[in-house]
């Protein structure tokens, strides 16, 4: 779908999205400060693209994913799907749209019912939405199993008989049963063995090209994001701090937090120096006690007095590239990555993932 100027229209638009969790307290329990899990997030996902939402654990990525699918309700803001405002739609009104937006969950062990065989799991969405007869549903299950790299004989097994990678393939097949336009992938490879992650990422890319899917891809591993995404949105303590096309963000990040995340990617050559002028310090703060001003300033090596009192806004730095940092135009240029790290090939992805696994097993960083 295109607008009057021939430009592609967004499939998903999020404007000023907010979700706070709080406790009003009780007779013997004092009220607690609200947890600002998502605090004024705005972005758009164009048809056919992959927008990656990245950040450390606790930054609000998964909450954002559930908000855009209306699995939980927002405290404020608007959500538009294919031009229709779905923010306040009732569950009955949302039901026809559920077919067009689906989710692949993070944990393939917890997201599949162990009491059901694979065929029952995959047929369930069709039955719930009243689609097809028994023969048609059976044919659709067989078709999707083939698309995700499984065979028909897998349909009559229980999920406990599968490996983690095979279970996630079943989860992907379930998400695609109803011919969705938008698929939200909530860290779909983080629970898998490193040797399987690249296979699942490549499967998702192949399915996107074949079925013309649009992805909102939640992740914290930038090696995976670099192989998967078209654009990247960086989230910290419930807010977006940078959003840009993938190549622009990896070549010249304009926010210190983004630079910290990029510098954490394992380097192929042991002992290769960091490209940071100074290292960020500390751990991500609690969303219930986010600091005043820029939320990253307690960890930022470039923070100035202004950062401690004035919250920066997301502003353009160049075409398609936006950052929320008072010093975004003062940071030294980001050096080009080494060729192996810059490559988007499967080999480079496997190398980065292997380095990450080895570092984790030896306790090094």
Automatic annotation (TrEMBL):
SMART domains linked to this entry: AAA (SM00382)
GO molecular function, one term: ATP hydrolysis activity
UniProt record, GO biological process: peptide transport; transmembrane transport
Gene3D superfamilies in UniProt: P-loop containing nucleotide triphosphate hydrolases
A Pfam entry, by short name: ABC_tran
Recorded family membership: Belongs to the ABC transporter superfamily.
Protein name: ATP-binding cassette domain-containing protein
